[in-house]
Amino acid sequence: MLRVDGLHAHYGRAHILHGVSLDVAQGEVVCLLGRNGAGKSTTMKAIMGVVPPSAGQVLLDGKDLAGRASFEIARAGIGYVPEDRRIFAELTVEENLEVGRRAAPAGSQGWNPERAYTLFPVLAEMRRRPGGRMSGGEQQMLTIARTLMGNPRLLLLDEPSEGLAPVVVERMAEAILALKREGLSILLSEQNLAFANAVADRACLIETGQLRHTASMAALMADDEVRARYLSV
Amino acid sequence: MDSLIVQALNGLASASSLFLVAAGLTVIFGVSRIVNFAHGSLYMLGAYLGWTLTSHGPLAELGGFFGFWGGVLLAALATGLIGAAIEFLLLRRIYRAPELFQLLATFAVVLVVQDIALLIWGPQDLLGPRAPLLRGATEILGLRFPRYELFLICVGPVMLGLLWLLFHRTRFGILLRAATQDREMVAALGVDQRRLFTSVFALGSALAGLAGALQLPREAVNLHMDMAVIVEAFVIVVIGGLGSLGGAFLAALLIGELHAFGILVFPRITLVLAFLVMAAVLVLRPHGLLGRKPSGLLPAAVPSPPLPRAPRWLVQAGAVALVLLVVLPPFLGDYALSVMADMAMMVLFAASLHLIMGPGGMASFGHAAYFGAGAYGAALLAKHFAAPMEVGLVFAPFAAGIVGLVFGWFCVRLSGVYSAMLTLAFAQIAWSTAFQWVEVTGGDNGILGVWPSEWARGKLVFWYLALALCGLGVVLLRRLLYAPFGMALRAQRDSPLRAEAIGIDTLRVRWVGFAIAAAAAGMAGALFAYGKGSVFPSFLGIPRSVDALVMVLLGGVQTVLGPLLGAVAYSGLQEQLVRISDLWRLVLGVAILALVLFFPGGLAGALRRREDDRA
Prior knowledge:
The structure holds 2 protein chains of 2 kinds. By secondary structure, chain A is of the alpha/beta class. Chain A has 10 helices and 10 strands. In chain A, a hairpin with a 2-residue loop joins strand 9 and strand 10. In chain B, strand 1 (about 135-140) and strand 2 form a beta hairpin. In chain B, helix 15 (about 370-385) packs parallel to helix 17. The longest helix of chain B has about 30 residues, at about 1-30. By secondary structure, chain B is an all-alpha fold. Chain B folds into 2 domains: about 1-230, no CATH class; about 340-580, no CATH class. Chain B is built from 26 helices and 4 strands. In chain B, the strands form 2 sheets. Chain B has a two-stranded antiparallel ribbon with strand order 1-2. Chain B has a two-stranded antiparallel ribbon with strand order 3-4. At the A-B interface, helix 2 and helix 3 of A face helix 7 and helix 8 of B. Chain B: This is ABC transporter permease. Chain B: It is found in: Cell membrane. Chain B: Belongs to the binding-protein-dependent transport system permease family. LivHM subfamily. Chain B: Keywords: Amino-acid transport, Cell membrane, Membrane, Transmembrane, Transmembrane helix, Transport.
């Protein structure tokens, strides 16, 4: 459903992405793996149009979205959960969800706050709490819920386990698997290999802004040499 | 006691309209990060439109309740539409341009609206109708108090309540608050920012228009309303905290009451009082009463390329120009000589502002304060102590430098928009001092008879004097840029953190730079005073600060030579415009808009892009 082809991106004059190509099938969970600074986050931002790509294609169901404004890309059906969460600190949980809300496409079961609270019950207990007064894990749940409110067909999750306590990481993995069971396609980036192994079908290994290797998650876990080459520090 | 109660109620009534204006300003800033200098113009347009709608046409014929209130509401809506149009046609095109260019664009709108209002409504004060049902007075505690004022007192809290509901109970309001915190994330969630921006401009402008139209029964409509209200609105927004509605309300009450009682106690220095409060608030709370430290992403600093040494051909060209400036003048007429002398002073004035804006990385929207401080310093010495020109010219840079030290102490502590607003407020305070303190400054009549000494009265000699002093000033400023102090100044602009880490006291460097620039501007101002033989409050006025800004931006902030060329080009152009057209503001405003729209990176930026392409 998503096909990225030859994506280049710059920060100022620094050339970060050197032609990243990858794809995500309907209902598949793909994980971008790589060391710090490899270009995982930039790939996500470039897909989303937050960092405008300087060359390449971002095809969603065959429609090229590269170079469009990020609100148009969001409306086309891509949901983006940034690494730094970017909760609206002065808005309550309910209001944060409201910002993300968009009408569901006809004939599909849309997201609403109640459904989001079923996925993350802890949020239901703090509907009126300002986002700035939540823990990191709660904020991570809120930012995912907020993006889901836009009824995306494809979810970009940038390091969802980063900085979370182990028990919260487990909850997060369960939530992602629940979303996967509902047929949502997900592209996530991770540093935590165990987490990636728990949720992803396939891995894309990225290094210095280029895709180096792709394999099923199981194959990657069995291949010590590849892991050592691209992931070990 | 009775008069105190009346004054307190008066203060509350003014606070309401101040709050409406400031609320619009702060809401627009929160979402778009644009400081809308044209907000006062929208307020003025609201008043003029209200006047027209309530005294001409079908609503006026209808008269009575619906005639008046229909007219007021329609005026607010029309102003909202005008604001939306300004956003749609102008600002939308320059959101990516540097902050200064956005501010400059709204300045240009102020100029254009001034002349358009003059063309449509004429220069005379216009008296509006009285409000139906609210004529006459009511007794409160045995005192008669105008009903309309009581009504206005209620308008403020009611509008605050309505705005609170809008911001907390509607999707539109929630989106606006979210966008105030993190625009990029709002866009990534699928919200079209362009529509949000246009509608927030419409909302803010409608509030300004409403405030203007509501003034009709209180005071005559005139062409000075825009500047008077914008400075107060800035003061209120800065005191309250940028983007905070509650803060704006509190600050409006504070300033409204301060004015009401200030008139009783210190009738002459009401604006200075407001400034003192602002200074105190900013020292104690740098982000205003209810403001927060800007959350989310800070605007990325724009590191500038290192200043190149002047190439050989440029030095040679400069030498040739200098020889021509020395050799040619004896063959020129008096008019040409005095125009050239004015240009020399403008060159120094622009070069001094450039020190703050270019290498200093600060924005000053009130640089005329220091130009005027020099001019008034020399003129006051001449008037009260009969000091000769030589003494005046020595004294003026010190006078301006001291003013720069005082004002600068506050300005360099703030950053970006807060700092720019503060410089403007200071300049307005300097202006109102010159304007209101009639015994000392002569008020609007200025100080006459500030003539050069006997030996310098000839136009030719005065030209050489101007050339020598301005040339010296420019050379010293230029020298400063390459001295260790100039490097420290540039270092703190490019990265305050790293500059601090290598032992540069960034605040102090900025402060000293500010004062040096003020002193240089003071020298230009004193020469200007002697050239004209008089000083007037207009020397410190906003238009003169804008002149300096345009000269610097026209030439380019990033080059040393730019401001010099900009000054020559701009002061020549303005001189000609004023001579040939009464509508010079309109023409100038349109010219600035064209500059901003077609060269959003400045002329220097356009040139650099061409060089990049070649490289």
